[in-house]
Amino acid sequence: MDDLKRTDFHIIKKQQSLGANASETSFTILFYATPVWFTPKSFDFDKYGYRNCKLTEDKQLLSTSEAVIFHHTSFSALPEKPNDQVWIFATLESPYLTYKRFKTHTLERKFSWTMTYRKDSEGFSLYIILKKRLHIPVKNYTSIYMNKTKKHCLDREQLSNSIKSRSLCERTIEIY
């Protein structure tokens, strides 16, 4: 638990404007390393009132993009960083889980901004949106539980690929 109280998990924040490479009319944001679940085509800046921004995955635009986003699990090596370009370290995981990945010599001082679920990030990225249901489904959870034959619950997302965790995941469990 002492690791959670550490203060050095944060990336050193340096105020930097996107204006260094920016044209007067538009900004190009390159999502260099996207997570498997993200599709830039579905992101619409107009919806949020930013008509002069374009999000792309075209790596040919690396040298001319004003900002470049790298998702923490989606890159193994980094390209050369153009001067004055904003590089963004993006993650939806906690600092505890990304600290080892980020705190390496090759990534040292490469990133200008962070994009996380935390509101104190330079780029805030919602993890989830809760919406009020119009109709609440009626379920008898006591009955559902009593009819279960296996009393296990497993969140496999954070397990490593070790033999031990793989054998645990291969056990038969009920999904509800």
UniProtKB/TrEMBL annotation:
Q: Which residues form a coiled coil?
A: none
Task: Identify the keywords attached in UniProt to this record, alphabetized.
Answer: Glycosyltransferase, Transferase
In this chain the Fucosyltransferase N-terminal domain maps to 28-127
Q: Name one GO molecular function term.
A: alpha-(1->3)-fucosyltransferase activity
The Gene Ontology CC terms held by the record are:
membrane
The UniProt entry, under PANTHER family, shows: ALPHA- 1,3 -FUCOSYLTRANSFERASE, ALPHA-(1,3)-FUCOSYLTRANSFERASE 10
What name does this protein carry? FUT7
Instruction: Give the species.
Output: Mytilus coruscus (Sea mussel)
